Amino acid sequence: MSLPADSWHAHYAGDQCIVLEFGQIIDKTLVDSVVALNARLTAALRCGQITGLLETVPTFRSLALIYDPLLTHPDGLLEQVRNLSLQAAATTHSAARHFSLPVHYGGEHGPDLTSVANLTGLDEQEVVTLHAQTGFTVYMLGFLPGFAFLGDTPSELHLPRLSEPRTRVPAGSVAIAMQLTGIYPWDSPGGWHILGNCPVPLFDGTLDPPVLFQAGDTVGFRDVDTHEYEEIADVSRQGKFDRKTLEQKQDVLN
Amino acid sequence: MNGSLTIARAGLLSTLQDRGRFGLRHLGIPWSGCLVPHWQQLANNLVRNAPHTCVIECWEGGLQVNVEDHPVRIAIAGHTSVIASIESAQRKISLAPMRSYTAQVGDTIALTSTGNMRQAVMAIAGLMVEPQLGSASTYAKASLGGLNGNVLQNGSEIRFDCKPDGPELRCTDPLIAAYQQTDIRLVMGPQEILFSKDGVHNLLNEEYELSSDADRMGVRLSGPAIFHRDDDAKNIVSDAIVPGSIQVPGNGQPIILLSDAHTAGGYPKVATVISIDLPLPGLLRAGTRFRFRAISIDEAIHETRQQHELVRKTVKNTTPVIADSLSTLVLLANNLIDGVIDGTS
Predict the structure, then answer these.
(1) Contact: B238, A24; criterion CB under 8 Å
(2) Homologous superfamily of the A98-248 domain (CATH)
């Protein structure tokens, strides 16, 4: 997929980063553009084709390019990026992968399921079904190491954040706010509505990469009962969960 | 040879840090790494370590390290006002920064106070720490690096593999003048457009004071508000953050982000402190006032390259400490020390 170079504006962010801004909103088409350019640049980076580029950071709305100021000037870096993104690409294999994640909705693991049902005028099962039937895309990672922002949550479930954030959201929580769904890899404070919990290890510092997803991957949720949830949680606690079992093979040509 | 050291007291916050863990920001994992990179480089060089070896970064002081089974060579990089010593029942040697020393079995190495700066670093010859995801830097929030993903604790044991050999080394801190700097240089953006003219005027013309609210993630400042363009401009859709980003939340009071900062966030960033000035807001004491000065990207790149060249030359420019063992012996023999020898004499 070729990307017109004028679909972003470059902003300096100090002497080691330049930010390519694609827009100011959360929107899947923006994310797709960011992910596409990121895939192109990451491939070029791995081949050493872009002098001075060290790493890239995709977000909802921008792609940050981190560079070594001893090796390149950001304007020179931009020139290289423009040339790359203007090259007509034939077909490129998408790096995106698809994951299916087990989630136990409601009960102690999904303390906000009832209130979400009340606020949206749906019953609990309808909320679960709507959420679990949605094909999500990982829009970005951030906020916490490995925290995945997924979109879009079905419009029926769009709610503002909680007016009083929780001081502790347990690791594995699957939660919603506005058009996003988030998965907490760590215990953390948080202000999203918790629908359920995913018992698999989402961040494992002994693995490389330590995080299951990256921006552009797609994710679906599988509604599991307490029994299956506990089984998976047990295996995870013992450190024996094989994350590869979550990935569903697909071969996407863009 | 494989020696061990015990952290008798870890002090306020002591962590193992190398240059940082790069290439994982897209997964939400910050770089971490030593807040004062040239100190990490100089201290390692003084104990003849490879430049990427991790050091102990110590906040405020209170660090005590016991030498268990083998002599060890160490060097502290910090401000000249650092208070540090090597101490045993028989002797106490005061340590000067930017110089190596050898501690014997049974000695306690103390970094009592980081002096006029919030941090100092201690390099240990042959320090062995298993890197995780390419770095030994501690990022405790994700249990990465350090010792089992954690900051140093009382009782932690660290290991080294190096026999003290050759003369002690010393060097001068090439950036000593920078600590007197009263302005911090920045490049405007990436979201300066979200701030009002008056807000940007304040940023570039008024004084800002460092608060005591500082850690490896960032430091808060107080001063005349850096006004946003309007209320809508107070929050943005999450955008990338780098160390140096100057975030301005709704109250208009800036936060300068440091090594452990999140990789993305929803406050607009009016400007970015240039990399070579970034140690200052983390180092200088609460209450220090300074001004921000905007420079062009060309100037920023130029200045950064110049400074790296200066540090590179200093690293090459260590000198052996020749008279050290002699003067120590002489002083001991004359019983002039009463506990303290100035290691720099």
Answers:
(1) no
(2) Cyclophilin-like (2.40.100.10)
Dihedral sign for Cα atoms in the order B243, B244, B248, B251: positive
> Cβ–Cβ of A12/B238 closer than 8 Å?
no
CA distance A7 to B194: 20
| DSSP for B66-122, written as a single string | EE-SS-EEEEEES-TT-EEEEE-SS-EEEE-SSEEEEEPTT-EEEEEE-TTBSEEEE
- The partner residue sitting opposite B237, judged by closest CB among A26, A74, A144, is A26
CA distances from residue A220 to A87, A107, A136 in whole angstroms, order as listed = 34, 21, 6
Number of Cβ within 10 Å of residue A189's Cβ equals: 9
**Domains of chain B, start order:** 3-171+320-342 (no CATH), 177-307 (2.40.100.10)
Residue A6's pLDDT is 62
CATH topology of domain A5-86: Gyrase A; domain 2 (3.30.1360)
Q: What are phi and psi of B28, to 5 degrees?
A: 85, 15
Dihedral class, residue B129 (left if φ above 0, else alpha if ψ from -120 to 50, else beta): beta
Label residue A248 by pLDDT band (50, 70, 90): confident
Q: Look at the block and give the residue holding tokens 């390019």.
A: A65
| A/B interface, count of CB pairs below 8 Å | 160
Query: pLDDT band at residue B125, thresholds of 50, 70 and 90?
Result: very high
